[in-house]
Design a protein that fits this description.
Layout: E1 2-7, H1 15-23, E2 29-36, E3 50-55, H2 60-70, E4 75-78, E5 83-84, H3 89-97, E6 102-111, H4 116-132, E7 142-144, H5 145-148, H6 161-172, E8 174-184, H7 187-192, H8 194-209, H9 214-221
Parallel strand pairs: 1-2, 1-4, 2-3, 6-8
Antiparallel strand pairs: 4-7, 5-8, 6-7
């Protein structure tokens, strides 16, 4: 079984599409949809494999942590609510599960807009990983549950969970970057401005590298 953990505020335009895609999987999956309370969104179960988990703390990392605590699958797949998985994603992950030396990884990045700047940003994702050891969270990170089971608390942060997890994986086994691309939405880039959004993300990662706590970075990120 694969446990798919989807942090959301319930208003993701692609959430229903993602849920339908997962429901067609050829392998057994459980879907943990994690939403903070209180929240005005009303989510209902669409498939027997789904569970709605409400969290007391705000922040995507806290939502992911709540989902990982409930998960029972051999792999944990951390999927943003604006990201579509590639065709055959389930078979690919099943193959990864069978290779015990693989602790986790992520998918190749592609955006839903074909413009040059989005293609350039996606192309930069792999060199950025080689330079920093960080896999961006919108690349649908996955990790072997039994490997991280005793250290799940490292994900109990409001954000920067992708940095923490990707660097943890590097220290604990083989990390793979699957070359079949996920497709992630550019809505946040378009809403906030391309360069402004990138600047905020990189600034937060820089603060984290200086030892600033994720809680403080969270407040800085959402104050701007």
């Amino acid at each position: 079984m694969i446990s798919i953990i989807i942090p959301t505020l319930g208003d993701g335009e692609l959430l229903d599409t993602i849920r339908l895609q997962i429901a067609k999987s050829q392998i057994v999956c459980e879907v943990l949809i994690c939403i903070p309370r209180p929240n005005s969104a009303r989510l209902a179960i669409h498939h027997p494999s789904e569970r709605i988990i409400q969290t007391e703390k705000k922040g995507r990392g806290h939502q992911i942590y709540a989902g990982t605590r409930e998960a029972v699958g051999r792999f944990l797949l951390l999927l943003h609510d604006d990201t579509i998985l590639p065709n055959g994603w389930d078979i690919i992950l099943q193959q990864m599960i069978e290779k015990e030396e693989i602790v986790g990884g992520g998918f190749k990045l592609r955006f839903d807009q074909p413009s040059f700047r989005y293609r350039a940003l996606a192309a930069f994702a792999d060199p950025y990983y080689k330079l920093t050891g960080e896999i961006w969270g919108d690349r649908a990170l996955f990790v072997r549950r039994k490997s991280i089971q005793d250290e799940l608390s490292i994900l109990d942060v409001p954000l920067m969970e992708d940095v923490i997890l990707s660097k943890w994986m590097q220290k604990n086994g083989r990390v793979v970057l699957i070359q079949d691309p996920i497709i992630t939405s550019t809505k946040r880039f378009r809403g906030q401005g391309f360069w402004r959004h990138i600047g905020r993300i990189l600034f937060c990662r820089f603060l984290f590298s200086l030892g600033i706590s994720p809680d403080r970075i969270y407040r800085i990120y959402y104050s701007g």
